[in-house]
Amino acid sequence: MKDIDEAPVKDEVSVHYRLHGSPDSANLVVRMVLEELGEAYEYVPVDRLISEQKSETYRKLNPQGLIPVLEVQGQDAPLFETGAIIQYLADRHGAFAPEPASPERGRFLKWLFFISNTLHADLRISFKPHRYVADRSSINLLADALTGRIASGFQQLEQEIAATGGPYLLGRKVTGLDHYLAACARWAQLYGRFGSWPIDTSPRIKQLLVELEKRPAVRQACRLEMIEGSPFVSPSPVTLPGITA
Ligand SMILES: N[C@@H](CCC(=O)N[C@@H](CS)C(=O)NCC(=O)O)C(=O)O
Questions:
Q1: Whose CA is nearest to atom 16 of ligand 1?
Q2: Terminal-residue alpha carbon distance, the chain
Q3: Of 1, 26, 176, 186, which shows the fewest CB atoms inside 10 Å?
């Protein structure tokens, strides 16, 4: 594969980005933001059926062997970690996050880190509990703890929307936080081994998801991820190889 800095620059439109992903994996979040920004990007499929993300070649991009990776022309290393990529894109393009000096910046950052290192991290464990504990009784204990933590995570976000007045997490303006939250809400309903997160317990999050589903860029990203129907409010799993489950 060519280095991204060797990518040809076509006419006025330069390809700055190369996104590595697999349908309905965390690249969904990055793709939604890239589509919102209207940025051109190349998509490189990673075959999860053969655990391509664990290959030596892929680990050169992300030593964790996790999806997604975003290669950015001009950056001295590939980007990984969904939250970091979202913030990078928002800052670089001055959109989908409050400006660094704005009064909402702190709220943006704290919820971005919360979604990334608490909600998304807990969901990841709930998708593959056998990676963390082996025996049945430990799995049951883990199930109880995670079900409570995930419900509490969504509840805290629900309360934040109530405090800001919504419809989005920070208030009236959509940010990358909403795309990240939407993907987590989708996966929590579909892929948890300990049951499905009940969306009806969080009417404000549900309304946020309804609003997000109306956005053309979000619909386009979902189409490209092979996600059909209502992606967040009433999701169904993708049926291609390599999905999250
Ligand atoms: N903290 C990472 C988590 C990424 C992650 O969990 N990726 C999943 C797909 S959604 C993955 O690569 N799973 C494959 C595996 O665990 O081998 C991030 O936010 O990017």
A1: 66
A2: 29
A3: 1
Ligand 1 atom, smallest distance to 26 CA: 10
Position in ligand 1 atom list of the atom nearest CA 85: 20
Over the Cα atoms of the chain, what is R_g? 18
CA-nearest residue, atom 18 of ligand 1: 81
Q: Can you tell me whether residue 52 is helix, strand or coil?
A: helix
Residue 174: helix, strand or coil by DSSP? Answer: coil
Count how many residues are written for the chain: 245
Ligand 1 atom 15: the closest Cα is on which residue?
66
Domains of the chain and any CATH numbers: 4-93 (3.40.30.10), 105-214 (1.20.1050.10)
Each residue's pLDDT, cut to its tens digit, for the chain (245 residues) gives 556 665 544 444 565 999 999 999 999 999 999 999 999 999 999 999 999 999 999 999 999 999 999 999 999 999 999 999 999 999 999 999 999 999 999 999 999 999 999 999 999 999 999 899 999 999 989 998 999 999 999 999 999 999 999 999 999 999 999 999 999 999 999 999 889 999 999 999 999 999 999 999 999 999 999 999 999 999 999 977 666 54
Q: Give the pocket of ligand 1 (CB within 6 Å).
A: 25-26, 53, 65-67, 80-83, 116, 120, 124, 244
Residue whose CA is at the smallest distance from ligand 1 atom 9? 25
What is residue 45's DSSP assignment? E
| pTM for the structure as a whole | 0.94
